[in-house]
Each structure stands twice: as C-alpha cells, then as structure tokens.
Amino acid sequence: MDFLTLIQLLDSAVRLATPLLLACLAGLYSERAGIFDIGLEGKMLAAAFFSAAIAALTGSVWIGLLAGIAASLALSAIHGVASITFRGNQLISGVAINFLAAGLTVLIAQSWFKQGGRTPSLIGNARFEPITLPFAEALQNVPVLGPIYYELISGHSILVYIAFAAVPFTWWLLFRTRFGLRLRAVGENPAAVDTAGVSVVGLRFAAVGICGILCGIAGAYLSTALQAGFVKDMAAGRGFIALAALIFAKWRPWYALYACLLFGLFGALETRPDVIENLIGVKVQIQLLAALPYLMTVIILAGFVGKAIPPRAGGEPYVKER
Amino acid sequence: MDVMPKWAEVILVPLISLLLAAVISALVILAIGEDPVAAAKLMVTGALGSTYGWGYTLYYATNFMFTGLAVSIAFHARLFNIGGEGQAALGGLGVALACLYIPWPHWSLALVGAAVAAGLFGAAWAAMPAYLQARRGSHIVITTIMFNFIAASLLNYVLVNLLRPKGSMDPASARFPDAVHLPTLHELLAPLGIAFSKSAPANVSLLVAVAACVFLWFLIWRTRLGYEIRSFGHSESAAKYAGMPPFKIIMVTMLISGALAGMMAINNVMGEAERLVLNSVEGAGFIGIAVALMGRSHPLGVFIAAILFGFLYQGGAELALWTAIPRELIVVIQALVILFTGALDNMVRMPLERMFLALRMRKEV
Amino acid sequence: MTTAPAIELKGISKAFGPVQANKDISIRVMPGTIHGIIGENGAGKSTLMSILYGFYKADKGEIFIKGYKTQIPDSQAAIAAGIGMVFQHFKLVENFTVLENIILGAEDGRWLKPSIAKARRTLLELSEDYGLSVEPDALIQDIGVGMQQRVEILKALYRQADILILDEPTGVLTPAEADQLFRILDRLRAEGKTIILITHKLREIMDTTDTVSVMRRGEMTATVKTAETSPAELAELMVGRKVLLRVDKTPAQPKDVVLDIKDLHVRDEKGVERLKGINLTVRAGEVLGIAGVAGNGQSELLEVLGGYAEGTGNITVNGQPLDLTGKYSDGQSRRAHGIAHVPEDRQREGLIMEFAAWENVAFGYHHDEAYRSGALMDNTAIREDTEGKMERFDVRPPDPKLAAKNFSGGNQQKIVLAREIERNPDLLLIGQPTRGVDIGAIEFIHQQIIALRDKGKAVLLVSVELDEIMALSDRIAVMFDGHIMGERLPSQTDEKELGLLMAGIGAQK
Q1: Which of C351, C353, C364 sits opposite B243 (nearest CB)?
Q2: What is the pLDDT of residue C508?
Q3: Is A226 inside a domain boundary?
Q4: Which of chain C's ends, N or C, has fewer CB atoms near its CB within 10 Å?
Q5: Which residues pair with B24 in a beta bridge?
C-alpha cells in the first residue's frame, strides 16, 4: 500500500469517525449523569433531516444546523420528561425516540419535498464546505508532512474540527469544572448530590440537553457535510456504533476519540477491501468489518478485555429516600 | 388495596395510551396536510374491508405475535430483549437451511422441521447475551442490540457468499422446493367452502402463532417454570429465598424468547417469500416491543395487539398506495404506542390513580 | 442570661399514610452538648432527623435554630442553617477522591482546581482542629468505612455546620473505630459544636451524651440528663411497659438436638464479618429465642440457615450436615432437610406481593408432589389447599385470589405462617413473627408457634421485641455484634438483664 492510499484511507476514517465521535460524546454526557440513552440514533436522524431540510429551504447551512440541533433537543426533552420527570424506563423511552425519528423524518420529508423521503441535494451555502487550513496548499509538496497536512488535517468541514475540539473540551468540562464534578457525581450517586443541596433533576436535564445539542451537530454533519442532503435512515446504525464506542471507551472522552477513530477506520476499510487484502494477504469479508465494532463491544462487555463499569446510578430513576 | 380496579389497569390504561397515540398521529396527518378521518377510513377498508386486506393484516399479525411473545416472556423475568430482530433473522437462516437441504416429503413435516430449526437458531442467538447477563452481569439490552447488528452482517455474508445461487446477482437464497410450500388461508379455507383471497400471504403459520400464544399462556400461568419466571421477575430477593436459581431462569427465559422470535421465520421466510432474502425481518422484531408493551405481556393482549399492529401495517401500506402519506406513518404510531404505554406509563397512570382515589374517598364519605 | 437552644423542635408530627411516624414531638438541644436520641427500630428517630434535614416536610410543628424560627424545605436550607448530617448509609461518590466528595455542592467558584486547593488547606486546618486525619487524595472505594465516616463528618464541617446529626453512626463500625468516633465527637463538643446522636445502643448513650431523649412508637417518652439516669432505666423506657402478652404454655419437654451450629462465621458482600463464631443448639420440642437489637447478625443467621447466604462452620440438622457454600446451599435443599422459614421481611422475601394468596401458598413448595402434576402446577389443588389454610389460620378476607399486597400485615403473615408450619417441618426458623402485625393476629401467631413446639418440633425465633422473646422462648440467647452474649432461662432473667446484654454490657466471653 502506498503512502497516498494510506493518507486517503485515514482521511476517510476521520470523516466517518466525526459523527460517531459527536454522538459518542453526546452519550457520554447523558450516561455520565446516569441517564442511559439508546436514542442517539433517533436524535441524529432527526437532526440530519431538519438541518438538511431547513438548509435547503433557507439556503443557509447555519440556520440548518440550528434547526437540526433544535430537533434533536426536542427529542431529548421527551427523553428527559419520560425518564427524569416521570421516572419511566430509560431504555424503552430510547427505543420510542428511535422509531419516532425514523417515521417522522420520512413523513415530513415526503410532505415537504415529495421526493420519496429525501431532501433536495444541497448546494453552495446550504452545505458545509471543506475548509483549507492556512498554508495547506503552500506546504502540499513538502515530503511526508505536506500530504499529511494537506490531505488529512486540512480540507474538512468546520464540524469535523468542532467534533475533535469537543474531546478536550469535554475532558476539561468534566474533570476541571464544578459542573463536571456534579455531573459525574449525579451519575454515580445522586443521593450524594441531593444531600449536598444540589438539584438532581436540574443536573440530569442539563446533561440530556447537552446530549441533544451534540447529537444535533452529529446529525447535521451527516446530511450537510458528509453528504449533500438527507436520505431515509441515513444514520444507519451510527447511533448504536457510537454507543458501542462509548462502552469501548469506558465513558472517558479521550478513549472515546480513539474508539471512534478505530470504528471510523473500519468504516473506511469497508469501502476499500482491496487495501486489507494487499496488506495482510488474506481476503477479509467486508461483513466482518461491518460487524467488528459490535463484536468488539460484546467482547468488552463480556469482560475479556478489562471490565467496562458503567456509571453506577445509570438507568435508575432517582427516588429520594431516608 | 389497589388504587385502581383491575379493569382500569388492564383495559383503561392501555386504551388511554392508545388514544393519546391516535390523537397525536391524527395531528401528524393533519400537519402534513392530509385528512385524518379519510385516512382512518381508508386504513379500515384497506386492511379489513376485504379478505385480501385481512390476508395481509393476519400475515403481519402472525409475525408480530411471535416477536411480541418473545419480548413478553422476557419481560416476565424483567429482562428486556431488544434482540428479536436478530433472533428472527437467524430463525430465517434456520428455516432456509431446513427447507433447502432436507428433502421433505410433505409440507406438514417441513413445517415442523423448519419451526424447530428456526427456534433453535433464534434461541442460539439469544443464548450468548443471556449467558453474559446471567454470569457476567453484562447488560442484556446492549448485548442484544449488538447481536442484531452482528446478525445483519452474518446474514449478509451467508446470503452473498454461501446461499446465493450461482449466477444470481440478488443477495438471496434459491427458491425453496415446492414440497415445502405452506398452504395459504385461501388453500386452507377453500375446502370449507369459504372464499379467501388467493393473493394474500396469510398462511398456516398463523395457526402456529395462535398455538404459540396458547402455549405461552400455559407456560407462564400454568407451569412450574412459568411460576419461577414470574417470581424472579417480580422479586429477585424472594426468588432467592424460595431457592429458585437466577442463572437457570435467565437462560431458560431467554432461550424461549429467542426461539419464539426465531419461529417468526416460518411465516415470512417459509410462508411468504419462500426463499431467504436480505433484511427479511423488516423491523418486526422491534414491533414486538410495542406489541408486548401494549398487550401488557399477556398472551391474549399480545394476540390482540398483534392484530392491531397487523391492521396498522396493512392499513399503512394502503395509505401509501392511495394517498401521499408514506408507510412510515405506522413507524410513528408504533413509536407513540411504545412511548405512551412504555416510557410515559406513569404520566397516564398517575392522574388516573388520583381520580380513582378521589372517587373512592367520595364513596366512603 | 440564658442561651438560646441550638435546636428546638415544637410539636412536630408526621404521618405516612395511616402510619404516624412522629407524634407531637418537642425537643431542646443546648449548644455545645451531645444529645442522644434512643429508641427501637421504627420508633421514628430517622424520620424526625430527616425532617430536620429537609428531606421530609412535617405535617405540623415548628423548628427553631439558635432561637430563630426556621423553615427547612430542602437540604440546601438545612445546610444554610448550619446543620450537617451523617447518614446511616453514607452519601459518598465511591470513585471520587476524599477532597472531591468534600467540595461537591460546596465548590468555591466554577473551576475545580482553585476549589480543590482551597479545600485542601481548609481540610488541613479542620484535621488539626478536630483530630480528623484523612488522606485527601484517596478514592472513597479504597478507604475503610471508619474513614468514609470521617469524610462525611468533614463534609459537614467544611460547610461550616455547627449542628451535626449522626444517624446510627456505629452500625458499620468495629468497636475500635467506634471508640475513635466518640473521641472525635468529644473534641467537636469541646470546640462548641452541637451534636445529635441517634442510636439504639445504650452504651453509646451512656458513654458520650449529655442529655438523652427516648422515642417509642413515634412519641418522645422522656428526656433526661444522662448523668441522672441508668442503662436499666433507659432500657425500660425504650422497650416500654406494653400490655404483657400472655401465652399459655406448658413447660417445654426438649428432646434430641435438631439444629446444631458450630463456629459459624458469615461475611457480608463488603467483606465485613457479621457472624463471628456462633454456637447454638435447638432441641426438638423447644423454642430458642434470639434476642438482640436489629443489625447484630440475626438476619445473617437466618439467611445462612435458610440457604441464601454463604458462611463457614458446621451446621447439622437431625445429624445431617448442611451445605453452606456449594450447590446445595439453597432454599430448596433446606426444605428437603425439614427446615421451614418464615423470613424477617415478608414483603421482600416471604411473599410476592403481586401474586394471589394461593400462588404465595405454593411459593418455595411449588415442586411439591401435592402441588404439581408433571411440569404443571396443580392450581386446583393449591387453591383448595389455600382455602383450607385460610380457614384454619383465620386469614381475612378468605379469598385465595386476592393479591398478597391487598391483605393486612397480620393476614400476610398468617399466609406465610400457614405455608411454612403446615409442612410439619422439623425445624422452624421464624424472624420478627409479629412485626407490623395487629394485636389480634399477634396472639394467634404466638399460639401457632407454641403449638408447633408442643408437637415436638424445634423452633428458632428471632425477634427484636423483648416481650415476645420472653413470652415464647424456652431458652433465650442474646446476640450482640455477631456474638452470642449469653444464654438465659426466661424464668431466671428479666428485661433489665437482657437489655444490658443486648447493649453489649455484661458477661462477655
């Protein structure tokens, strides 16, 4: 495999890792606060549709992005009301949200655009265009580093940079601020937070809200940056791969980045089976690559590669007791 | 005392949830510029107005009975099996192998053999998540979701690389031999002098599904095993006191659950498609969740809810055919049913409980 | 000049549905003192303190802090009023450090680093002032319970609490750790803090408090100066002079040993030793009563005998050894040994509350010949049997189809009792037979226990009600802190002596 193929492969891995990373961090906030969220998929999907649709209608991708975030937040609100206010089953709520998004996006897409559940193709300002970083073109021909900078690091949409910046930011927020301390505490032992005089409900809603915003960006990236427009079911299980990555990362931000890059690389390799064959001399089934994130998660869950311990209070509604 | 009388618990609560889901669905239809009343009428005539419509309604209902029962039995042990989709897909593989590689002399024997194969494959696919839950405490919800995706990849591989006939471009198995063709309702009812649509896919598996409902009712409410499953689901501490082993209960429950989901394949793979295609389950595994929640995990409730969802499916298809409303409307309705009967149960229940409490107070004064 | 009391409660009442947890309670605690509140489990001590900490709202009554009338709607208000609480079950985040736990909710600004730095300095000062040394960067999960409790105390001090409530603080501590705790409390008092100590252990009250209030059944029965009272008087006030329940019974005629326990040790999930070498025998035809304050190992004893907790040692029933850890340490195998068990907590263990009465009658015995036909349950037979049991045990209403949760406490207990006793077991384990049971049913339940004894069966009775132990037992063993403190004959002892043994005072081995 030549150097350029490698760079291209990694470049493609970065693109595919971005929505995973955003969704994975979204789940991280929610689950760190003790609210399980298997509705990442649905929130991404809703955001993907609304950002594409509004971008197509207004011609502005930024308004589209806001619309996507708003849609995702609306679903987060449902999840919050069901699982925090009414102490319902968080898993069932997540399942409902996934279906709600799957159905509504197509329904509304059909009603608005009459193109069989898709939005029109986005062009110009209705799409996030790649950004060329300073000096990228000038340095293009510098050996080794030039192509890495030009192909791999430069030339992505702004959302990719936001996603990668979100990793250190999340780490900082969780481990260096008061809010982060309280958020982590509420996912481990809400009673400790409550007796310390801090609102459990408020913190959990905040976490679910952040989760909504990040899923919104993830969805917007799918339809306005990775692709040019919304198509039915375009989240395609990414919400669940993000969930898998979250477990793989043991609910830690930097590990989430590595896990998502790894899963992004699997995705990139899926489209280039020839690369693997050249590399290891054995033909690997693309289906195996597609299943790899899930297989690895199961192995992690089984405890063969260190035990993944989720936040202790995860999934349990908080009921005050003596 | 119970705050609510039993009839309210069993009928009123699901009914109100359903009503809420229906109202919001109607609003959605309005919002996309269609007429909800006309849509409802079309759905009823399309799904129930002819034997053709009934044939499809019952065909879908058959699928949902199997997957609904699968989710229900797990619920009784307080386990949430989201893996019906993957288990049903594996069941399809079991059916395909049984039908393609065993020379069955008669459809009835083939049905038994295929059902056993489907059940075994489905159960095997549920076994691993069950074991991980029982022994390692890995959350069964996450593992069953993962197994759904792994199943999809596995079937993709098997269909593309192993079962696809030479020269075919379609990722699907060869057509099953005629000997394993299952009689449709048309063929079953004709000797009785009842005319039933020829082109509807409902077939003899419906009877197997109904039998499964009865069997499960029997299992849950009549056998010692069902008693242990229910005890474990209600109170793990009490089950321990009584000496009921949690490992055994989790394993057996999930094996039965997986087998039921897998057996769906005798309907959609053997009865309808008569070959194994990609994504043959078409979300029926997930609809099982809605069906189980709505049917309150009781086999009779599951039976009724499955027919209701069969009606929605067929009605939705008719809508998509004759109006601008896409099929996805039923996905929305399904989501709302899960939301209201499952996650927002307390929202429906709390005001009702207050109402009944007030009523009783007034009676006592 | 008179100083205002640090805390004054006037006429506090609180009901949970029909249960009156606190009835018109008034109390005054002077600053710089340690005030004890003593009472049996369920006497309403914790409820009272939860009201003071803003967890519950009182139905009636007023709270004065340092002379000012104060509303305490939530924990935040309690903290603001200078109240700190150390709960029986610690409210700590296990995978946080000591410092992180201390600043949680009381951070100094938005950023963590300066908060932690400040907390580190404050902690150092506090440690020196009160002799409370902790390792600030250790994770909670890595330090012992005694240390964890210090963190809870430091949490309160860090919030500048000058009133400290400790709810059963020694429940999880070893005696040495408890001694340390009391030294710390002395020091806090010397520094002018006000301390409320909730406990059911007499010795702690006698050793540490200045004044003591006794609670019984939601009421405050007395408040006295500790120096002017005695353990005996407190024991009497605590247990109360209830109507003595009389049980007509003939002297026991003990025969062969049925249950023989030798050197039984049990550890809980956290690895804390709960039974520390128990030796007991119960003979056919006698009732052995285990007296003791709740939480001293009685529950663990019943669980091991019942087959759902593991232990080490030797236990034989009718000469046959019981499996204490392996495949046959479960409820089914125990029943096969002729052991029946009426558990302490009938709602969590003895019954499935959602099941009908008849389903509960088969609970644990569902594999029995009489109740099954093949793989099925013989529901008709079970229902018929239930009808008979309900009649013989006077269960009301006599409706086998009614769910267990819809029966009163006494009738629930009769269902469990009927199920276990009518098996004709060789050994009956029975825990808190009359907890939450109405007076009428108590008498009936007591008669059934004696009737079983008179049939020549062995009975192991665990109860925190001393009256009950006295009325039913042929021999009494007192448990304290995982040990048997001693055995007495009911005819040769009295409640005072037993009360002292229960408090860990007396002929310790």
Answers
A1: C364
A2: 44
A3: yes
A4: N
A5: none
Q: Are residues C113 and C59 in the same domain?
A: yes
Sign of the torsion formed by the C-alpha atoms of C266, C270, C271 and C274 = negative
User: Which three-class secondary structure state does DSSP give residue C313?
Assistant: strand
- Domain boundary, last residue among C188, C211, C239: C239
Count Cβ atoms below 10 Å from residue C65 Cβ, excluding itself: 21
Using only C-alpha atoms, chain B has a radius of gyration, in whole angstroms, of 21
Overall number of domains in chain C: 2
Q: How much is the ipTM here?
A: 0.90
The CATH number covering residue C449 comes to 3.40.50.300
H or E stretch including C486? strand C483-488
Look at residues C288, C252, C317, C292 and name the one whose alpha carbon lies nearest to residue C456.
Answer: C252
Q: How many residues in total does chain C contain?
A: 509
Distance of CA B116 to the CA centre of its chain: 18
- Check whether residue C334 and residue C225 sit in a common domain: no
**C182 plus C294 within the same structural domain:** no
Q: Check pLDDT > 90 for residue C466.
A: no
Residue C233 shares a structural domain with residue C268: no
Query: Domain span at residue A79?
Result: 3-236
User: Has residue C369 been placed in a domain?
Assistant: no
**The two structure tokens encoding residue C203:** 């010795």
Q: Which residue of B has its CA nearest to A90?
A: B343
How far apart, in Å, are the Cα atoms of A46 and each of A105, C14, C33?
6, 49, 62
* B 230-259 residues with CB < 8 A to C: 230-231, 234-235, 237-238, 240-245
In a domain, residue C421? The reply is: no
Q: Three-class SS of residue C64?
A: strand
Measured CA to CA, the distance from residue A75 to residue C190 in angstroms comes to 56
C106, C219: one domain: yes
My answer on whether C336 and C439 are in the same domain is yes
Q: Where are the alpha helices (DSSP H) in C272-338?
A: 298-306, 331-336
Question: What does C145-168 look like in DSSP terms, one character per residue?
Answer: HHHHHHHHHHHHHHTT-SEEEEES
| Mutation target among B2, B10, B75, B227 for the C interface, most CBs of C within 10 A | B227
* Residue B20 CB-half CA count within 13 A: 20
Q: ∠ at Cα B356 (B350, B360), nearest 5°?
A: 145
Same domain assignment for residues C200 and C327: no
Show the domain range for C121. 7-239
Test the C interface: residue of A32, A178, A184, A195 with most C CBs within 10 Å: A195
Q: Is residue A229 part of a domain?
A: yes
Q: Which residue of C has its CA nearest to B218?
A: C376
**B6 interface with C at CB cutoff 8 Å:** no
Give the separation between CA C149 and CA C171, rounded to whole angstroms. 11
B335 to A96: CB separation less than 8 angstroms, yes or no: yes
- Tell me, yes or no, whether C172 and C275 share the same domain: no
Number of domains, chain A? 1
Select from A35, A87, A107 the residue whose CB has the most chain B CBs within 10 Å, as the one to mutate to test that interface. A107
Determine, yes or no, domain membership for A69: yes
pLDDT tens sequence for chain A (322 residues): 678 888 888 999 999 999 999 999 999 999 999 999 999 999 999 999 999 999 999 999 999 999 999 999 999 999 999 999 999 999 899 999 999 999 999 999 988 998 888 899 988 888 898 888 888 778 878 887 877 887 888 889 999 999 999 999 999 999 999 999 999 999 999 999 999 989 999 999 999 999 999 999 999 999 999 999 999 989 888 999 899 899 889 999 999 999 999 999 988 888 887 777 777 777 778 888 888 888 888 887 787 766 677 888 888 888 876 4
